[in-house]
Specification:
mainly beta, six-stranded antiparallel beta sheet, 2 helices, 6% helix, rod-shaped
């Protein structure tokens, strides 16, 4: 991504878009003994079952917040960031803060157009959490043939997991939420899959 100001590369130091500070994944396989098939009662019914859960919880990822206006007069509005005031309010240099009569910051200072003071990649998506589960039952069909019945569920709690958020300052300001570390959330624009199920048969011979 291009810098906001080609004369100030120091302002582009930031966390990577792929920076994910916390991620925990638990996976396991629980299998009932195949020897139970030779027994009677409940043991026989529960033989050859496999349960495999995958649980993931992770932090959000950074994104760059843009003003969508060419405040630094470099003939491009694709890289300009908003200004951030002492109280954390985001605004566009040279414009009035929405809902007030207060000017954000001057558009021109000492003959120089203003670049936004917000750090690069200071937005963040919400955290991710999902539980997937696979349940399989092996059914012997003679000495050499086995049938496996499979049921799989993804995102079993049907949690909304944000995949992307709007980078524009108007959406960030309207969403009006901040993370504990001061970073800004924004209006979600994409989500990972909701709860899904799939079933299958596997014949081994």
């Amino acid at each position: 991504m291009l810098p906001q100001d080609n004369r100030n590369f120091g302002a582009e130091r930031s966390d990577s878009l792929f920076d994910q500070r916390h991620r925990f994944v638990f996976s396991g396989v629980i299998a009932s003994p195949s020897s139970w098939a030779s027994e009677g009662g409940i043991h026989r019914a529960l033989s050859n079952f496999t349960i495999a859960p995958i649980f993931e919880i992770s932090a959000g990822r950074p994104f760059n917040i843009l003003s969508n206006q060419d405040t630094n007069n470099d003939q491009s509005n694709q890289t300009d960031r908003p200004a951030v005031r002492d109280d954390g309010t985001l605004c566009v240099p040279g414009a009035v803060i929405p809902g007030t009569t207060t000017l954000c910051t001057p558009l021109i200072t000492d003959g120089v157009f203003t670049s936004g003071s917000l750090a690069r990649n200071f937005g963040v998506t919400h955290g991710y959490m999902s539980l997937d589960l696979r349940l399989a039952k092996l059914v012997p069909l003679g000495e050499r043939v086995r049938l496996e019945l499979i049921a799989e569920g993804f995102n079993l709690f049907n949690r909304f997991n944000e995949a992307a958020a709007s980078p524009f300052v108007d959406d960030v300001r309207a969403f009006n939420q901040r993370a504990g570390n001061g970073r800004y959330y924004s209006r979600p624009t994409a989500a990972f899959d909701s709860r899904q199920f799939q079933f299958g048969l596997k014949l081994n011979f």
